[in-house]
Amino acid sequence: MKRLVITSVALVMIFLTGALASADMMTDFPSITYVADVESLTISAEGFNREDVLDITWNGDSISSQFAMAIEAGIVQEIPTDAGFDIIIPVTTDVLEEINGGVFGIITPTGLPLTVKLDFNGFAGETLGTEISSNISVRAAAAWLIFNKPSDGSTIRNCLYASTSCLNKGLYHTGVDYSGSVAVATADGTVARVESMNSRDHGMGSNVILSHKLSDGRTVYSTYNHLASIDSKIRVGKKVTRGQRVGVIGGSGYGKPNYYSKHLHFEIKTAPVTNSPCGGLYWGYTPRHPDKYCYYNPSNFIQ
């Protein structure tokens, strides 16, 4: 039997027709594309490696085990590409008709799906294809980066996102506070801003801001505040990797090294500034929910 690359979808197709019974450079924007002709269907996954995939689904149901069986039987084979990987399967017009409208999915490392719906309406034997980019929600877009907690400690329970029980009671906390000794990059990114504590730091102390490009092209910024010191490798324009040391956690603010008790104030927002990106100038706390001032809840990113 001819060896071909099968896509999950392709694999499903094989199962639907009973055909199986007999037996690294990534792009910036993850996507799934498919192309079909009278002989084959090819699904190309770009922006991630095959080993990063947690699950493959068809109409919401896992087909990873069947996929593995097909590979082992030599009926299916995966082909790595410079952008990701391809899965291909031989088809007939009857098979295409059978799977028309089905939804193929890949589950990301953080558990969020990237899906594409197959549409063969009007197919007449010519090459036909379509593409879908990443899910449009911020959380889904962030899934392709993998965000980890930004310290070697844990969250401080009364100082979570939008909490009104933190230091400035009655106001909304714009980030999440962490205990610990070392602040680390929450995800791969680029250093956007570095500031040492000074009399005009608005209470944020020595701080670092990193930029992170999401899979849909948007950029978000993570901020690391009240640091005791900043790592010498953290310089504006430099690339950083997830888990890389950013600095030592402290309590700096208003130009003083120990203005606060030791903790990391961590934020994710839409601009590389220490204040609120929109809705007025606020630092660390807002009069209404932080979402209204262009902050994001870090828990929507960190898994």
Mean pLDDT: 80
Shape: elongated
Order of helices and strands: EHEEEEHEEHEEEHEEEEEEEEEEE
Q: Report, as a whole number of angstroms, the end-to-end distance.
A: 43 Å
Main sheet record: 9 strands, antiparallel
| Spatial extent as radius of gyration | 24 Å
Low-confidence stretches: 1-28, 124-137
Number of E-type strands:
21
Secondary structural class: mainly beta
Strand content: 25-35%
The count of domains is 2
- Helix percent reads 10-25%
Q: Determine the number of helices (DSSP H or I, runs of at least 4 residues).
A: 4
Keywords:
disordered N terminus; 303 residues; mainly beta; 33% strand; Glucose Permease (Domain IIA); 2 domains; 6-stranded mixed β-sheet; 9-stranded antiparallel β-sheet
Task: Write structural notes for this entry.
The chain starts with a strand and ends in a 7-residue tail after the last strand. It is elongated, with a radius of gyration of 24 Å. The protein has helices at 8-17, 64-72, 93-99, 138-142; strands at residues 4-5, 31-36, 40-46, 55-58, 61-62, 76-80, 84-90, 103-107, 113-117, 128-133, 172-173, 176-178, 182-184, 189-195, 206-213, 219-230, 239-240, 245-249, 264-269, 285-286, 295-296. The longest helix is centred in the N-terminal third of the chain and has 10 residues, at 8-17. By secondary structure, it is mainly beta. It has four helices and 21 strands. The strands form four sheets. Strands 12, 13, 14, 15, 16, 17, 18, 19 and 21 form a nine-stranded antiparallel β-sheet that branches. It has two domains: 4-133, no CATH class; 172-300, Glucose Permease (Domain IIA), CATH 2.70.70. Helix content is 10%, strand content 33%. Mean pLDDT is 80; it is low at 1-28 and 124-137.
